[in-house]
Amino acid sequence: MKNHEIDYKIFGEELQCVEIELDPQEAVIAEPGSFMMMTDGIDMETMFGDGSKQQSSFMDKLFTAGKRLLTGESLFMTVYSNSSSQKKQVTFAGPYTGKIIPMNLKELGEKIICQKDSFLCAAKGVSIGIEFQKKLGTGLFGGEGFIMQKLEGDGMAFVHSGGYVVEKTLQAGERLKIDTGCVVAFTGTVNYDIQFVKGVKNAIFGGEGLFYATLTGPGKVWVQSLPISRLAGRILSYGRGSRKEEGSILGGLGNLIDGD
User: Fold this and answer.
1) What are the b/e assignments for 22-59, b being 16+ CB within 10 Å?
2) Cα 115 to chain center, whole Å?
3) How many CB atoms lie under 10 A from the CB of residue 254?
4) pLDDT reported for residue 130
5) Helices (H) and strands (E) in the chain, counts
6) What are the chain's domains?
7) pLDDT, tens digit, 9 for 90 and up, residues 97-149
8) 160 conformational bin, left if phi > 0, alpha if psi -120 to 50, beta if neither
9) C-alpha 258 chain-centroid distance
10) What integer best gives the mean pLDDT of the chain?
11) Do the strands 219-224 and 183-187 form a parallel or antiparallel pair, or are they unpaired?
């Protein structure tokens, strides 16, 4: 294997964390802010890019780090290395309620495409890049699905999802229609596209947006039940304050117009 081999355990149900066990000289990379705790003997180092090209030039590292800005991530990644002679553990936690999905890239074609904010951590050597959707319609209307993260390598990677996660295996030519925000990840063999919701009434009164994602097999797809954007939007709507007519007929009519 080109990437470090790591062992892991996932704890919890709705608010999960993943404990990574590192042998001597093994390392794991993670997004800043995902760290929870670690045992003594692990060194932490912050670096440009994703840490997968240690011998690359400064300009290569700067270019890799700059691409991460397009996905809304930090310029830096954090590397946790076991510098001791014994096994050590480091734990990472999901940023909000949901599930942590372990992905063995070696068994998944060595390439995974995921939402830009779903990557949590991975074995050192896994490359974290960006994946542009090539079709014009996807780029203009894809929303959360336009610029996605690309995980490449043959090691373990961990992705976080919101709510409950459903794993689907699509056969060749089999198509799945999904809300763009509910797509967590899919293998590199799956074709991703955006389609317009047909029908004027569906588009105006459907309450689900004008577009949905279509994923066509073969390959695996991971779907989340609660995108963070949907949760944040609902919290903001309640935070604006309740109507004075709450509970009356007028209040119910207002909620109907709002789509609540």
Assistant:
1) beeebbbbbbeebbeebbebbeeeeebbbbbeeeeeee
2) 4
3) 14
4) 80
5) 5, 19
6) 7-238 (3.60.160.10)
7) 899 999 999 999 999 999 878 899 999 989 888 876 655 444 444 444 457 88
8) beta
9) 29
10) 79
11) antiparallel
How much is the pLDDT for 50?
Answer: 59
Start-to-end CA distance of the chain, whole Å, equals 51
Which of 6, 166, 21 shows the shortest CA–CA distance to 98?
A: 166
Task: Match 């279509």 to its residue by tokens.
Answer: 214
Q: How long a stretch of residues is the chain?
A: 260
Per-residue model confidence (pLDDT) at position 176: 95
Could you tell me which of 218, 222, 127 has the C-alpha nearest to residue 183? 222
pLDDT tens-digit map of 204-240: 544 445 678 899 999 999 999 988 777 777 777 776 6
